Sequence to fold (253 residues):
Amino acid sequence: MSKHRFYVPPKQIIDGNVFIRGTDVWHINKVLRLSKGDQVLVFDGTGREYRILLGKRKPREILGTVVEQWEQHTESPLQLTLIQGVPKANKMDLIVQKASEIGVNVIIPLQTERSELRKKQKKLAGEKAFQKLERWLRIGIEAAKQSCRTAIPQITSFMNVEEFLAQPLSANLKLFLWEEEQENSLKAFLHRYSEPVQSAAVVVGSEGGFTREEADLFLSHGYQPVSLGKRILRTETAGLVVLGILQYEYGDY
Fold:
């Protein structure tokens, strides 16, 4: 069976026909050099996988025919949301990639007062913001493909703290990673926490951290401030560490 695996949205799988589009067409034709009659695997993000036979080609589309289909369940029972203060440069690319591999379901790019993004937010309006979100979605899809996930992470639009908190998030556990928290370590908090956890949200600041006003807003909305110890982790490290710990405690690690 082919080890080549591609994501195709459900709307492109119709009556046994699979329409592969986008960059995967180039990858199949130019990199893998697959031919008509070759077989590949496809997943649709809803838990279904397909073995398909490659057929007719167009410059931007390859038609496949379903040979076999089945239900595949590789998702963790723990629903994870990462609320990430957007860092400088391309650090968010790494965060999206690794969080997707760990099993995060939703990633919310957060504009904080101290983030570089906030200072340049006018430049990120419209098309440029859309391009960043599209890039992160592609990275998330690629990570889901390579890690054999059956779902792809949702990447939401940019939000500031007020906009995010105005839309109440339903999660059993809401963690606020804060460098100014001195007493409540993540380890101690999780040892004390006795309620069932089927969903968790993790808030991580950008390089500049959160202002006191932003921290107070999160705390007033039920987020639990926790520390990761005396050593300071980079923003692109902190969230991934906590996501992994939560998968171990409440997920399928």
